[in-house]
Amino acid sequence: MICALLAAGSAAAQDGGLAVEAVEILPEVDIYGQEVWYAEGLLVNRGADAYTGITLLAEVYDAADNLIGEGLGYPVNACLAGLLPDFALQPGASQPFAAALELYEGDAGDIARVEILPQAQPTAPQPDAPAAIPGIVPITRREVVNVEWINDANLRYGAGCWRDLFTAWDWYAYNLDMDGEEAVSHPAAEAVAGEAMLRQIGLTDPLLLNRSFLTFDPGGRRMVYQGELNTVVTAEPDGSFKRVLFDGLANRTLQGFQWLRDGRFLAYYYGAYGDPVLYFTADVNGQTLSEPPENADPSLIVPGASPDGTRIVLAAEVGGVTGYYLKRAAYDGLDLLFEAEPPGNNWPGPLFRQDEDGATFVYAALPGEGQARLACFNLQSRRLNDLSPLPLRLTGDARGRWWLSPDNRRIALAADGTDGGLWLVSLDELPACD
Length: 434
Fold this sequence. Notes:
The protein is mostly beta strands. The protein has 4 helices and 30 strands. The strands form 7 sheets. It has a 7-stranded antiparallel β-sheet with strand order 1-2-3-6-5-4-7. The longest helix has 7 residues, at 195-201. Residues 1-15 have low confidence and may be disordered.
């Protein structure tokens, strides 16, 4: 890792507008498996205008102040994907950027400094932040991709690129009572650092490890991961006592695991935004709870599963009726819950809530008139209740997720992308789900 010296370079930077911070020179692997060097950092708007059409010119110099390379960059999200040209960086806001570097000669070891020259068009800033939503508290504007409830009053969340291994995310512990957070290390990070464990599970190749979606049961010991041929396996923290779940998934694209309760989880697969979603449920001891993915009813959304993994809610069109359906995970047959136009497969999937008295509810994030809505379906009364607007603003390259607290009183709602963040939804403060 080479830290670069910076110099202001554009009119926007000189007049207190755009500035760059925390620039580093880092290697990244492109889609062809080749190593490419990037200047990565943070673009900050210190002015009163918003800026759009942003590009960043990079000039690379050696110790003798000779120009030895150049580059072109753009604002990016946490996964280093370039943002659309109409993206506007608002006053006081910041956004990561990346500029691919091309050296005329030599290698990265010859780099002494890099000048980043932001260029953009000023535009009128957007109005202030949207009005607060009763019962929903914003926690952070980071790109949050995972939340783990520790107990009813504490959680930890990971911010970064959803494709990366959890050890690459920035983790924070948040206390609900104190409304405060602190940067932390994930408690399972040390287990992944050991080469012996990675040899045991066959993931010593960094590229295979990073696409494994390896994750630990937040309430237990064992882990689940995707192997080299897309085989799904569970194992102990040291890689021992492996249990193979499904090994015929080489042509499927895993998009993630969702932890349920007591070591159970849902795995879901699709190729791209808008594609149908396949899935299965299982537990960390190697027991499958549903049909194999290739036999499952395809869903128009990422499905949700009951805490025990035996029931699934998905979206589908059946007999000309598009809506949300309930199915027993291991059996055929769909039961229509309610008709609705489902969102994309980048939205949070349905969320089960089972209270101690046996009452069961399904929460769904649904498209609304200009704003996402939180709906709740009561499985006893068979009624759909509209509860509240949601602060989700998801483009096709952003994803939303959510997790129910252990006491069933709150939902941690997260999103990545330029409108990413983490919010706490207090179900006690919303209308009842009758």
